[in-house]
Design brief:
Layout (H helix, E strand, L loop, with lengths): L8 H18 L3 H13 L11 E3 L11 H9 L3 E6 L8 E5 L6 E2 L5 E2 L11 E4 L3 E2 L5 E2 L5 H12 L3 E5 L20 E3 L4 E3 L2
Cofactor: Mg(2+)
Family: Belongs to the 5-formyltetrahydrofolate cyclo-ligase family.
Catalytic activity: (6S)-5-formyl-5,6,7,8-tetrahydrofolate + ATP = (6R)-5,10-methenyltetrahydrofolate + ADP + phosphate
Length: 197
């Protein structure tokens, strides 16, 4: 007879917080979503950039705050853009160069990503989707650990800035965290810029 693995209390708490946060996010009206994305993009860029800076964004899915207006602002300021590519569970994300208007291909889970022939790049700044966050920079994502693994791998090689993109309603008092959880440097909401460093 095989025994069940022990229940991880942190994982269980995160799952409950994730469900509640995604329910709250789903209730945000479409007009507020568009206004929030515009408000974030209208501010000065949250980090200094140079012509060689590469910013990894993402294509919003479900009820995520759309980072496209902010991504366009980065491009207007001379940065290169990249989008993440999922390589498999437990593996860091790869990043492929991309520019607005270049067609994307559909990958697993309905995610859109650059075509395989797009060159791989290493980002300096990552825009990170999330379910919820706290003011210490901890976040709850979707449970696969892709960004935690990726940030750990990138930060082992060089400094990178991780910026959470969220609606103010996604903030919670405390995210239960463990040693595998990578912290965000900043969180941008429609209401404010939260510096977690």
């Amino acid at each position: 007879m095989t025994s069940k693995p022990p229940i991880d209390p942190v994982a269980a708490e995160k799952a409950a917080l994730r469900r509640a946060a995604l329910d709250r996010r789903d209730e945000i009206p479409a007009e507020h979503r568009a206004a929030a994305a515009a408000a974030i993009a209208a501010r000065p860029l949250p980090v200094p950039v140079t012509a060689g800076t590469v910013v990894s964004g993402y294509m919003a899915i479900r009820s995520e705050l759309d980072p496209a207006p902010l991504m366009r602002r980065f491009v207007e300021n001379g940065t290169g853009l990249a989008l993440p590519v999922v390589r498999g569970r437990g593996q860091p994300l790869a990043f492929r160069a991309w520019a607005p208007g270049v067609p994307l291909v559909t990958a697993g889970f309905g995610l859109l990503e650059p075509a395989p022939e797009a060159p791989e790049v290493v980002p300096d700044v990552l825009l990170v989707p999330l379910a919820c966050f706290d003011r210490t920079g901890h976040r709850i994502g979707y449970g696969a650990g892709h960004y935690d693994t990726t940030l750990a791998a990138l930060r082992a090689e060089r400094p990178v800035v991780a910026i959470g993109i969220a609606f103010a309603a996604q903030e919670i008092a405390r995210v239960p965290a463990n040693g595998r959880d990578a912290r965000l440097d900043l969180v941008l909401t429609e209401a404010e810029v939260i510096d977690c460093r």
